[in-house]
Amino acid sequence: MAVSNPSREAILTRIREGLRTPALPLTEPVSSGPILEPVENPLERFQQECKANLMECQLAADATQSAQVLAEVLASLGAGEIFVQDDPVLRRLMTASGSQREIRWSSEGGPLEKSQATITLADALIAQTGSVFVSASCGGRGASVVAPTHIVYATEKQLVPDLVTALRNATAEGRLEKNSYACVISGSSRTADIEKILVQGAHGPMRLVVILETSA
Asked: Which residues lie below 8 Å from residue 52, measured CB to CB, with a gap of 6+?
């Protein structure tokens, strides 16, 4: 038995009328110039953008100072397990830091919800936006979203001017093919959806710390 549905017929009528109207020819987009300012000094720009992104960027002159910075950051955290990407570089860094924290290495599985922080490497640092480029090789998918604090250790050699360069390098080195995901992290997780009040840690770490070693 047919049922009258005036609303449906009205919508279909509008669709039919729209389909009878020829589409406008495509026009070439007009460029208004670059969206972001060009990068002149990558290290200085990265530090500026990190500050704007509510992200901590700690410079270290060498491996010894990197370990000292890491020890200070870990000392500022509450008691609990630390998840660390199982990499020889980070194993040496953790040993040099002298930390007595309970450690869960990524080779033992992903980070647990009780983790107080995760420590990982980065694939690249992006100066233009103050971002950290990571892939699944950097401790797994959960390394950058589970714990309330994410600590990233990187060197100045990993600093690139923009996202295009980071993606080009990752493609050339085969990192995008070898990993199940890639992610660009621009500061701590935050939102201002509710009454325009900024809240950090909305859907990931509320604190993001980059230990950037400048001598490497």
From this structure: 130
